[in-house]
């Protein structure tokens, strides 16, 4: 440790997404390569001398206590803990959350140092990992509300890579063995041989950490919710969700110096007849065990919905990932003229 392969991989992964603006301190971290990155981890972040850095990922994160604040973070997975190196704008934007983000070093504001806030979740405190629909995000849950973090990767590959590395690291932990017999086959334990469908999507790791995956009911619930928003015009049986993706809605802000683009996180859902944008709560559901009452907001809140038949054209940018799409709809909204004429003039 560190192997040449690890250093190369961590260097490749150490890239901030181009559409995200971060503080100077995180830009400094993103500029580190190879051995400098490993040394930075051991000198400035690692809490134990003999822990090893195993994985690095840049992702937007949400905390259970500040569910409306999405912040960019460099996520570092070691053999002892998960470290979230956070953009310091989080602390400045939410001074009223001082009980959660203790900012003791306020006298450093005017110094030449660039400070970052680092949130640590020890692997021994980890209880469960909830993987979101289509691997677009995952939620890490510990013992208390302070230890619930959602990583919005918006990328199934990044989610899968992190989960794989996390499972590998958890296997190194010395915990009492799981009560289940080891020789049981995964499919015989969780599957129904008659139907071939999996009944339970909960995988208990040998470290006793639960990995919970969405089951078919979640898609069914989502389809039912979407059908409700369509005013019941669609038969639920024929309603198919073709695409579910975490995206950003771009709002252009007229700035004094230049036109800035404000990115608002949205969940885009495409059915065979409609295009929907939802505000989704990525962190409160499923409810953690210590939750006394349900969250103030529903999991899905409709932000916008348009019929595909009203879609006039789709404009595509030429840049590489992330790709920008502009949907241009007709001005007439929710007006099926022929149906109205029939009802008003020829019907009873």
TrEMBL record:
GO biological process, one term: Golgi organization
Domain PLEKHM2 PH: 114-178
InterPro entries: PH_domain-containing_M2 (IPR053015), PH_NISCH_C (IPR057714), PH_PLEKHM2 (IPR057288)
Cellular localisation: Cytoplasm
Main location: cytoplasm
GO MF annotation: an example: kinesin binding
Signal peptide: none
Key words of the record: Cytoplasm
Span of domain Nischarin C-terminal PH: 241-347
GO CC aspect terms: endosome membrane
Name of protein: NISCH protein
Organism this protein belongs to: Casuarius casuarius
């Amino acid at each position: 440790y560190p192997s040449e392969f690890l250093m190369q991989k961590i260097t490749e992964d150490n890239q901030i997404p181009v559409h995200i603006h971060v503080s100077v301190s995180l830009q400094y971290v993103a500029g580190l390569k190879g051995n400098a990155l490993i040394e930075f981890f051991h000198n400035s972040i690692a809490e134990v001398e003999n822990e090893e850095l195993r994985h690095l990922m840049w992702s937007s994160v949400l905390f259970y206590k500040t569910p409306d604040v999405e912040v960019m973070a460099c996520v570092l997975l070691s053999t002892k803990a998960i470290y979230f190196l956070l953009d310091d704008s989080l602390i400045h934007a939410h001074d009223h959350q001082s009980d959660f983000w203790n900012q003791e070093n306020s006298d450093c504001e005017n110094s030449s140092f660039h400070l970052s806030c680092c949130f640590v979740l020890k692997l021994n405190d980890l209880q469960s990992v909830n993987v979101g629909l289509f691997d677009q995000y995952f939620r890490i849950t510990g013992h208390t509300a302070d230890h619930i973090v959602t990583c919005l990767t918006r990328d199934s590959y990044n989610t899968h890579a992190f989960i794989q590395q996390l499972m590998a690291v958890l296997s190194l932990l010395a915990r009492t063995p799981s009560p289940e017999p080891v020789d049981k086959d995964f499919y015989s334990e969780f599957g129904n041989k008659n139907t071939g469908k999996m009944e339970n999507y909960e995988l208990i790791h040998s470290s006793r950490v639960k990995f919970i995956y969405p089951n078919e009911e979640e898609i069914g619930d989502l389809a039912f919710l979407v059908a409700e928003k369509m005013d019941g015009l669609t038969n639920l049986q024929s309603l198919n969700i073709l695409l579910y993706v975490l995206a950003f809605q771009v709002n252009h802000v007229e700035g004094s110096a230049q036109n800035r683009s404000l990115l608002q996180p949205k969940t885009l859902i495409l059915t065979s007849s409609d295009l929907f944008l939802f505000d989704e709560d990525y962190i409160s559901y499923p409810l953690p065990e210590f939750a006394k009452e349900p969250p103030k907001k529903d999991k899905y809140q409709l932000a916008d919905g348009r019929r595909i038949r009203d879609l006039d054209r789709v404009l595509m940018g030429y840049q590489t990932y992330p790709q920008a799409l502009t949907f241009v709809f007709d001005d007439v909204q929710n007006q099926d003229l022929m149906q109205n004429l029939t009802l008003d003039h020829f019907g009873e």
